[in-house]
Amino acid sequence: MFFRKSHTLQDAESVELQHDQKTTELKASLGPLSGRSLQYCTDACLKRYLEARNWNVDKSKKMLEETLRWRSSYKPEEIRWNEVAVEGETGKVFRANFHDRHGRSVLILRPGMQNTASLDNQIKHLVYLIENAILNLPEGQEQMAWLIDFTGWSLSNHVPIKSARETVNILQNHYPERLAVAFLYSPPRIFEAFWKIVKYFLDPKTFQKVKFVYPKNKDSVELMRSYFDIDNLPTEFGGKATLQYDHEEFSRQMAQDDVKSAKLWALDKQPSNGFAGAEVAPEPEALALPVS
Questions:
Q1: Residues 263, 282: contact at Cβ < 8 Å?
Q2: Is 248 part of any domain?
Q3: For a tag on the chain, would you pick the N or C end, based on fewer CB atoms within 10 A?
Q4: What pTM value is reported for the model?
Q5: pLDDT tens across 212-267, in order?
Q6: Does some domain include residue 275?
Q7: Shared-domain flag, residues 16 and 101
Q8: In the chain, what's the furthest Cα-to-Cα distance?
Q9: CA 85 to CA 103: how far, in whole Å?
Q10: CATH of the domain at 24
Q11: Model pLDDT for residues 122-178, shown as the tens digit of each residue
């Protein structure tokens, strides 16, 4: 028994050592980084990209460089709540005031409460909230959980396929290994037709994280309880808490988080000069230290 435990520990240490070596190799392959790219590419970040590409350094490098270009252009860290607040008026997507049992931030999505028609603004709103969920992760935690409530969802008000595909692409390509699990709670039968199309956009790793949950299914109930404290979980997801979205209160929280985000990215000290990619010139003045 002792030998078996010792052997398992050695295996784990060997894998960890290999992963550290891959991380060092990826870091070296990127070359000198500056500005926000340097701040973004922490060891934890590099490991997420490596994990997403099965620890293949070349594929991970390509993926990460595409993200750095996207972030340089899209500037997700510069989005502020007042720019997307109208998208959040119905509470169709918001960060919950509780974490799961692993300390992960939780995003609640209610697609039946869609209130706008602009795909670009909807994506910008979601990107803002993904960044906000990451901002509010406890130290040492890298992932978030999604709870999707289908109340009021129908084919007449469903998210367009184009929007769903764009959402999946951004989540998979630019936030790899940020999603721990996504619970689709009690989806209507008609959703199956929509899902048959959407699932083709998902890579195998993301697909395995999507869980269909039905309140009358014992295994589903136990699965939810393994991730969440029932006292915190809203009744809409089989818990005991009351789900309340107060747009004014949430807006106040987001305004506070915007200050925290600006400080993290040093945006409170200097205007953005538009440079953030791996190949760009360094930004002036001191930047926030990279967080691992």
A1: no
A2: yes
A3: N
A4: 0.87
A5: 999 999 999 999 999 999 999 999 999 999 998 999 999 999 999 999 999 999 99
A6: no
A7: no
A8: 62
A9: 26
A10: 1.10.8
A11: 999 999 999 999 999 999 999 999 999 988 887 666 667 788 889 999 999 999 999
